Amino acid sequence: MPTVNDYALTRLGPQRFEELSQALALRLLGPSVQIFGDGPDGGREASFENLSSFPSPAAPWTGYGVLQAKFRKRPQDAASNTKWLVGQMVAELEEWVNPASKRVRNGRVPDYLLVTTNVVLSPAPGAGGIDRVQAALWERAHTL
């Protein structure tokens, strides 16, 4: 079975990676996904609302969600990638809670935030990049 390391996502470039992320969201989440094009998008590559069958028909997500694609032109080692992604996501969370930001004034604060990225994160349980990013976001989200 292929892993993320088997795909040269960096060669897509930021625009094509964003389009891939949008296409995957549309395919996995269904027709309620609204895709945004170039230009000011309020921190959204796509949005969705009240999914009927994701993640399962028995327990679908209700509420408003946003997809963000985080593309790093020159990914580095797993530790550097983790630090970069945490920084990117903390900055995004801070924009969503800043009442002076255009995102908050002109948009809606999401109940769900899906993130796609081209960086490789270590899967080691507890100490790997995936768990570290998740822990940092969880901690930051609960202090906002």
Properties at a glance:
single chain, alpha+beta, four-stranded mixed sheet, 4 helices, 144 residues, 13% strand
List the helices and strands and how they pair.
Blueprint (H helix, E strand, L loop, with lengths): L12 H17 L4 E2 L10 E4 L14 E7 L7 H20 L4 H5 L5 E6 L11 H15 L1
Parallel strand pairs: 3-4
Antiparallel strand pairs: 1-2, 2-3
Helix pairs in contact: 2-4
Descriptive account of the structure:
It is a single chain. This protein is of the alpha+beta class and about 140 residues long. About 40% of the residues lie in helices and about 15% in strands. It is built from four helices and four strands. It has helices at about 15-30, 80-95, 100-105, 130-144; strands spanning about 35, 45-50, 65-70, 110-115. A four-stranded mixed beta sheet has the order 1-2-3-4, covered by helices on one side. The longest helix is centred in the middle third of the chain and has 20 residues, at about 80-95. It is globular. It starts with 12 loop residues before the first helix and ends with a helix. The model has no long low-confidence stretch (mean pLDDT about 85).
